[in-house]
């Protein structure tokens, strides 16, 4: 009976971890630090910065740019999420970088323009494709890569438990390539949700699967199936909401978003978006996070394997003549 109660408590704890993590992060999204480029002289930039600070304190970070071309370049390089050109009354967004951010920027600056009796024209420089009008495919696609990475590590561990680190790494790489090819085909060709760069999507998808597979294989080698459970809990109920999910990291509590920067799900989703929509811009940071996790997994793979403790050997007593 005690074991049953313990199992029920454990399952309840896991359920509360999922609910608390997702609901705590996503139940009341508020923008914080959304970067905006403002084209114009310093005086105009200061006026815009003061106005948005009064309307939504901490929601936007305003940077001045001398020309619209420079600001557009910053938008396409993922340095800012929007460009305001006050002289012409235009706001330039990139919904492919995140529909939530584009919507927040549009709402805030349209309200400011209306309060001043002016009209605001909104241009979407990098729109979402017809196959993903809601802009949620990138995040859930990244999650669809995390789960096969976990499963791949467990499957190889079960079917080839005695395989060495080099052989395990080769099997993981081959499996990651298969998963990347298949899932990229669905996302790009079949559904048109992440279209336009199949080769790049295969590469980054395979890299994400391989990273997760190597980490979980290392945890499995170091701690057994408890390590697999640790990896699953860390990457899914913590990593997914900490990344902001479909909302983006700038719309969840800042402390949680900071944690999400160092877990694979958020950077993985960012890498997918940047490869598909922005020509591979701003890949250094997300790839560095994935590389760090892969390195951790490699270290765990080459360390001595976890071994069960040896059972005590009963003492051997000499047989005497009197004991015969």
Give structural notes.
The protein has 11 helices and 5 strands, in the order αβαβαββαβααααααα. By secondary structure, the protein is of the alpha/beta class. The protein has 2 domains: 34-124; 137-302, no CATH class. Helix 1 (2-26) packs parallel to helix 8, helix 7 packs parallel to helix 11 (284-302) and helix 10 (265-277) packs across helix 11. The model has no long low-confidence stretch (mean pLDDT 92).
Question: How is this structure best summarized?
Answer:
With 324 residues, the chain is α/β, with parallel strands linked by helices. Helix content is 61%, strand content 7%.
How much of the sequence lies in strands comes to: 5-15%
Mean pLDDT: 92
Distance between the termini: 47 Å
Tell me the number of structural domains: 2
Jot down its keywords.
324 residues; alpha/beta; 2 domains; 11 helices; 5 strands; 61% helix; elongated
Topology:
Blueprint (H helix, E strand, L loop, with lengths): L1 H25 L7 E6 L2 H14 L4 E6 L2 H9 L5 E4 L4 E4 L5 H17 L5 E4 L12 H23 L5 H26 L7 H26 L1 H18 L11 H7 L4 H13 L6 H19 L22
Parallel strand pairs: 1-2, 1-3, 4-5
Antiparallel strand pairs: 3-4
Helix pairs in contact: 1-8, 5-6, 5-7, 5-8, 5-10, 6-7, 7-8, 7-10, 7-11, 8-9, 10-11
């Amino acid at each position: 009976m005690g074991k049953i109660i313990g199992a029920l408590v454990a399952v309840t704890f896991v359920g509360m971890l999922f609910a608390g993590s997702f609901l705590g992060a996503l139940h009341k999204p508020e923008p914080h630090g959304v970067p905006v480029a403002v084209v114009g002289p310093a005086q105009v930039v200061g006026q815009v910065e003061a106005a948005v600070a009064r309307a939504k304190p901490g929601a936007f970070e305003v940077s001045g740019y001398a020309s619209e071309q420079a600001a557009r370049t910053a938008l396409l390089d993922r340095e800012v999420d929007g460009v305001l050109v006050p002289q012409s009354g235009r706001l330039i967004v990139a919904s492919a970088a995140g529909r939530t951010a584009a919507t927040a920027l549009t709402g805030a600056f349209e309200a400011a323009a209306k309060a001043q009796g002016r009209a605001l024209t909104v241009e979407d420089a990098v729109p979402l494709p017809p196959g993903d009008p809601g802009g949620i495919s990138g995040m859930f696609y990244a999650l669809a890569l995390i789960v096969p990475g976990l499963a791949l590590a467990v499957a190889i561990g079960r079917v080839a438990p005695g395989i060495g680190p080099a052989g395990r790494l080769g099997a993981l790489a081959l499996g990651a390539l298969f998963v990347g090819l298949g899932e990229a085909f669905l996302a790009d060709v079949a559904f048109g949700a992440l279209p336009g760069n199949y080769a790049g999507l295969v590469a980054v998808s395979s890299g994400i699967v391989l990273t997760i597979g190597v980490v979980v294989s290392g945890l499995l080698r170091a701690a057994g199936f408890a390590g697999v459970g640790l990896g699953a809990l860390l990457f899914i109920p913590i990593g997914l909401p900490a990344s902001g999910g479909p909302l983006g990291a700038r719309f969840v509590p800042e402390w949680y978003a900071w944690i999400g920067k160092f877990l694979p799900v958020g950077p993985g989703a960012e890498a997918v978006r940047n490869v598909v929509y922005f020509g591979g811009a701003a890949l250094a940071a997300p790839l560095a996070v994935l590389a760090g996790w892969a390195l951790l997994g490699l270290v765990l793979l080459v360390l001595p394997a976890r071994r069960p403790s040896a059972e005590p050997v009963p003492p051997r007593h000499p047989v005497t003549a009197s004991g015969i």
